[in-house]
């Protein structure tokens, strides 16, 4: 989930003077709205056209505007510039921005800071009014049936108390890039033509595909021209680079890639045109041509690394924070030897490019070349937080079971974003809903009301003082959750349906299995495995709270319900001893059966409830994801004090991890706990592990043993941060001196000092081993 | 078999090889001035009072730090904590065995520490025996201050002895630890003669026990016994001071700062120069 503004305004525009045919980002031109107004006109003019044609018409305006100039040092062409309105199948920026969208805050900013004529101002106001109605997210919201609108009244998941919120985005598209590289632009055009020739197909959609490919080619040609122009005035070394780039850009228009350079260039431009942010198994996509070039002596090791590093920097420049996934390693790759060569190159690029993205993810399996893990650990040990480790031996069968597919199909699982799993080119599962389980427990304790504001969160199913048994409390909690999970599943299906009427997601649909054959957009019947995911938060705090209540209020009757409710309402004011007692109850993360079983119960309940919705709403699967970003902090801010001893408004535990500081029994105890919740009923859960720099440096044998046992015992995934607590504390105090420190916050890596202070504090609180 | 345990630390990586679980036993006859576990001294469970955590409930107002009588059954006051619990060897081993996969993969196992584990000989023996039967590697972290008979009871049950050498000379040893060195050194020799695997642990406090004579003595033991598994130096750190106060104990070196990393390598170098090249930071 994009929890922080993608800050379109920050995409860099430095270094190269704008070429006449490469429009500079709107915010820096004299007329900051010209492009947006043209985009709006294109959309308006095609309001009643086929969604594929409307999308293509809008992209025809957008792409020349947003594909930003080549910068100094780039070896691959393709950057994205900011925009004030536009199209993306995903989301863009901090505003609700699915599909066709506008970013009102940035428009306001541009209106107040720029010298804008009265006439232009009126046009912009009119444009804003148009988009308030026509933006895709508003259309999704407007399509809610009354019951859905009543149960999901707010979209402000970061800013308001609530149990469940919809998100607006078709996020996580991970296409068949190997097919792109195998066929190239001409091959893809041929496939579209062949499909047309066979007949019985939506010709408008195919026309949209053709236009999308034309736009891609035009983009390549514009970059080719720019590269040649830059080359003319560059020094000798840079000239050679730019000429090579220009030649490559010409070649990708004419043939399927025949070199690593061409493959990288085509891959990258395609992702930018389609605003695709997760790249899937790049070792499968790029490995064969890399191996070919290295063996044929076309490319030296050093050149290959520099190209890859450039690609890595371009990925980082997208500032997605939570996307930019590159997956390497694992079973189910057609040419593992070639793929491994790319995997090693990717690890080296991640070790040497000091950026928070891409999120390199390494799949591991028994029998894999041990060098991959060894190099991966070197990069992690150097403080890079990448690669993130995935265990195929667990994930393949788990994905097969959760998604209801065969093992062979499940071998193509890839993580995207913060750690949701999909099948590359085969399934799509946007996480378009969030549920805060701890807030649901709050509603169950306080008659369906928010304990901080008294606002209604859900139906009144009772209050702690009315339940005679723990089972009654559980039933009320489950009642609050179940109802909203059903609603979020309905919302997800509805979102796909509304989007299908609005756009065809041309670049995604073209490279998703079955879409061209069926002649349907991926979300409009093209993709067999159109699925959904639901982000759950507060799982750990909910389980620990439920256990504390069960023990103290029901089993031992040691704490009267009224006392507990009063303490929670007042954030334990004057009730520190009671809080101490709550804190002293068993907590998840200590290899304590009672605590771990409660977590498993909470986990299984919400996972099964979600799973059960798929058939009802018409999705291939609807699965929980227990990922994290900073939503645990943001939603925690609107969640009252809880019975695990957590204070009002403070962060909830991260993902499925134990509450920071509550796992007091040692790392192995924690590792034993976190493998308890089954991975076979959800679509991804993340585990963060902070290890001290010293341990990694001096006791690598111990670290390796720790990981191997964790994976052998069923650990599915692990993100390792190597750092020292002292270092983090110092970074808090002197941010300027610690810009090199990177940490993982659930789903993404970030420069520690760039994080909000409360998130920084929470990370320092997390146990470091 | 029952005994008193005051802490169980899993993923211990500094108390012997591999990934280990360290079980801390209560009770110690020594009074080392630098002790970092002074809450272990008394054999029985004790009250620890952390006045800083008092929320104003007054429950801790009359509490005596270190008291062993009338311990609160279950205190609600976060300032009060009972150190030590009476438990069975079987229950401890059950917890220890939860990490057996990690021991197997890393060459780790169980470490008994304290306190002085040999003050609870039957319990210690029982823990070692149960671990051994389960195929778990064992280390015993000891000051060596026990009767020969007690030490001999453990022979064959301990895979690796972590054996302290704290000071040199009757006078120094007595003033720094409260007991003389005779029995300790005799037990050490006895173990080595019996072919037990032993690693020396050398706590060093600059200006207190890092005398030339003491370092020379350590180096001499190491030279005499090439079969020693190794020599680990533990430079002083002051983390134990606050804990000691919570149980009413005072440590004489409360004001001594923790040894800096540079000074720590210095201590090791001094041993190297005396010919004890196996010395390393523990
Ligand atoms: S022998 Fe160990 S536990 Fe006993 S007083 Fe000395 S340092 Fe403390």
Describe the overall structure:
Chain A is of the alpha/beta class and 769 residues long. Helices cover 51% and strands 11% of the residues of chain A. Chain A has 32 helices and 18 strands. In chain A, strands 6-7-8-9-16-15 form a 6-stranded mixed beta sheet. In chain A, strands 5-12-13-14 form a 4-stranded mixed beta sheet. A two-stranded antiparallel ribbon of chain A has the order 1-2. In chain A, helix 1 (34-45) runs antiparallel to helix 2 and helix 5 (136-142) crosses helix 18. The longest helix of chain A has 33 residues, at 470-502. The radius of gyration of chain A is 26 Å and the shape is globular. Residues 1-28 of chain A have low confidence and may be disordered. Chain B is built from 9 helices and 11 strands. Chain B has a single domain (2-45, 84-281), classed as Alpha-Beta Barrel (TIM Barrel). Chain B has helices spanning 89-97, 100-106, 121-133, 148-154, 170-177, 182-193, 212-224, 240-246, 261-273, and strands spanning 2-12, 20-25, 46-49, 80-83, 85-88, 109-113, 137-142, 160-164, 198-204, 230-235, 279-281. In chain B, the strands form 2 sheets. A 9-stranded mixed beta sheet of chain B has the order 5-1-2-6-7-8-9-10-11. A two-stranded antiparallel sheet of chain B has the order 3-4. The model of chain B has no long low-confidence stretch (mean pLDDT 92). The longest helix of chain B is centred in the middle third of the chain and has 13 residues, at 121-133. Chain B is an alpha/beta fold and 282 residues long. In chain B, helix 1 runs parallel beside helix 3. In chain B, a hairpin with a 7-residue loop joins strand 1 and strand 2 (20-25). At the A-B interface, helix 24, helix 28 and helix 30 of A face strand 1 and helix 2 of B.
Helix content of chain A: 40-55%
- Are there runs of chain B of 5+ residues with pLDDT below 50, and where? none
Strand order of the largest sheet of chain A: 6-7-8-9-16-15
Bound molecules: iron/sulfur cluster
Top CATH class of chain B:
Alpha Beta
């Amino acid at each position: 989930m994009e929890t922080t503004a993608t800050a379109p305004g920050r995409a860099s525009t430095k270094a190269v003077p704008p070429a006449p045919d490469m429009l500079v980002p709107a915010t820096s031109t004299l007329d900051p709205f010209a492009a947006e107004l043209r985009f709006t006109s294109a959309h308006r003019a095609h309001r009643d056209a086929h969604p594929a044609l409307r999308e293509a018409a809008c992209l025809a305006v957008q792409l020349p505007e947003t594909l930003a100039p080549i910068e100094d040092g780039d070896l691959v062409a393709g950057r994205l510039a900011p925009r004030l309105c536009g199209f993306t199948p995903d989301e863009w920026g901090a505003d609700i921005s699915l599909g066709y969208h506008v970013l009102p805050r940035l428009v306001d900013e541009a209106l107040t800071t720029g010298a804008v004529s009265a006439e232009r101002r009126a046009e912009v106001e009119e444009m804003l009014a148009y988009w308030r109605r026509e933006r895709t997210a508003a259309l999704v919201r407007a399509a809610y049936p009354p019951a859905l609108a009543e149960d999901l009244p707010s979209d402000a998941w970061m800013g308001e108390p609530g149990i469940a919120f919809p998100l607006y985005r078709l996020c996580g598209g991970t296409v068949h890039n190997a097919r792109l590289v195998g066929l190239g632009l001409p091959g893809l055009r041929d496939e579209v033509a062949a499909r047309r020739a066979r007949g019985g197909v939506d010709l408008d959609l195919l026309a949209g595909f053709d236009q999308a490919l034309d736009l891609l080619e035009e983009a390549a040609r514009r970059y080719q021209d720019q590269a040649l122009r830059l080359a003319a005035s560059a020094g000798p070394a840079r000239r050679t680079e730019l000429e090579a780039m220009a030649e490559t850009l010409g070649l990708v228009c004419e043939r399927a890639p025949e070199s690593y350079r061409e493959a990288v260039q085509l891959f990258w431009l395609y992702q930018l045109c389609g605003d695709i942010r997760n790249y899937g198994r790049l070792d499968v996509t790029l490995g064969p041509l890399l191996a070919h070039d290295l063996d044929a002596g076309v490319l030296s090791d050093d050149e290959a690394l520099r190209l890859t590093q450039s690609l890595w920097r371009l990925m980082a420049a997208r500032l997605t924070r939570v996307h930019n996934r590159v997956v390497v390693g694992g079973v189910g790759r057609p040419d593992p030897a070639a793929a491994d060569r790319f995997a090693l190159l990717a690890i080296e690029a991640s070790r040497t490019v000091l950026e928070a993205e891409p999120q390199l993810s390494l799949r591991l399996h028994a029998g894999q070349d041990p060098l991959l893990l060894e190099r991966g650990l070197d990069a992690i040990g150097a403080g890079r937080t990448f690669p993130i480790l995935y265990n195929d031996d667990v994930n393949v069968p788990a994905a097969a079971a959760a998604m209801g597919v065969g093992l062979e199909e499940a071998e193509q699982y890839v993580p995207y974003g913060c750690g949701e799993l999909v099948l590359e080119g085969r399934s799509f599962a946007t996480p378009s809903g969030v549920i805060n389980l701890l807030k649901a427990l709050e509603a169950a304790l306080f008659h369906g009301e928010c304990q901080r504001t008294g606002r209604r969160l859900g139906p009144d199913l009772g209050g702690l003082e009315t339940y005679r048994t723990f089972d009654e409390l559980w039933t009320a909690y489950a009642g609050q959750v179940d109802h909203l999970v059903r609603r979020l599943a309905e919302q997800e299906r509805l979102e796909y349906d509304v989007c299908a009427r609005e756009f065809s997601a041309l670049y995604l649909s073209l490279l998703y299995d079955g879409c061209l054959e069926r002649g349907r957009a991926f979300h409009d019947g093209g993709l067999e495995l159109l699925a959904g995911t639901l982000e759950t938060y507060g799982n750990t705090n909910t389980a620990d709270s439920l256990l504390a209540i069960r023990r103290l209020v029901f089993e031992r009757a040691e704490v009267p319900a009224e006392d507990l409710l009063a303490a929670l309402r007042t954030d334990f004011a004057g009730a520190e001893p009671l809080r101490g007692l709550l804190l002293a109850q068993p907590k998840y993360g200590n290899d304590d059966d009672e605590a771990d079983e409660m977590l498993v119960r909470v986990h299984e309940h919400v996972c099964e409830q979600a799973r059960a919705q798929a058939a009802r709403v018409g999705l291939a699967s609807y699965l929980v994801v227990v990922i994290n970003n900073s939503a645990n902090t943001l939603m925690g801010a609107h969640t009252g004090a809880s019975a695990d001893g957590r204070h009002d408004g403070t962060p909830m535990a991260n993902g499925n991890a134990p509450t920071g500081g509550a796992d007091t029994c040692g790392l192995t105890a924690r590792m034993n706990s976190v493998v308890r919740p089954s991975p076979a009923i959800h679509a991804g859960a993340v585990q963060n592990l902070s290890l001290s720099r010293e341990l990694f440096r001096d006791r690598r044998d111990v670290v390796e043993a720790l990981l191997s046992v964790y994976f052998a015992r069923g650990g599915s995934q692990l993100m390792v941060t190597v750092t020292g607590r002292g270092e983090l504390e110092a970074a808090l105090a002197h941010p300027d001196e610690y810009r090199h420190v990177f940490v993982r916050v659930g789903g993404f890596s970030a420069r520690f000092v760039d994080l909000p202070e409360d998130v920084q504090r929470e990370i320092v609180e997390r146990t470091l081993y | 078999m029952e005994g008193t345990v005051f802490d169980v630390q899993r993923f211990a990586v500094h108390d012997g090889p591999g990934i280990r679980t360290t079980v801390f036993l209560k009770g110690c006859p020594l009074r080392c001035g630098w002790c970092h576990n002074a809450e272990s001294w008394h054999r029985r469970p004790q009250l620890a009072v952390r006045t800083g955590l008092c929320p104003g409930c007054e429950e801790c107002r009359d509490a005596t730090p270190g008291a062993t009588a009338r311990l609160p059954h279950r205190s609600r006051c976060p300032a009060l904590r009972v150190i030590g619990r009476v438990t069975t060897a079987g229950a401890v081993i059950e917890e220890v065995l939860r990490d057996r996969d990690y021991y197997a993969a890393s060459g780790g196992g169980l470490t008994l520490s304290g306190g002085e584990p040999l003050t609870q000989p039957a319990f210690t023996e029982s823990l070692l025996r149960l671990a051994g039967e389960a195929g778990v590697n064992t280390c015993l972290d000891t000051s060596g201050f026990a009767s020969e008979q007690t030490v001999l009871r453990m022979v064959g049950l301990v895979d690796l002895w972590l054996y302290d050498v704290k000071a040199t000379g009757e006078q120094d040893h007595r003033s720094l630890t409260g007991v003389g060195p005779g029995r300790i050194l005799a037990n050490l020799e006895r173990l080595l003669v019996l072919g037990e695997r032993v690693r020396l642990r050398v706590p060093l406090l600059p200006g207190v026990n890092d005398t030339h004579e003491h370092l020379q003595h350590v180096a001499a033991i190491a030279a005499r016994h090439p079969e020693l598994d190794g020599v680990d130096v533990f430079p002083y750190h002051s983390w134990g001071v606050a804990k000691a106060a919570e149980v009413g104990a005072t440590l004489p070196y409360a004001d001594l700062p923790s040894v800096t990393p540079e000074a720590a390598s210095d201590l090791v170098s001094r041993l190297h120069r005396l010919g004890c090249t196996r010395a390393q930071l523990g």
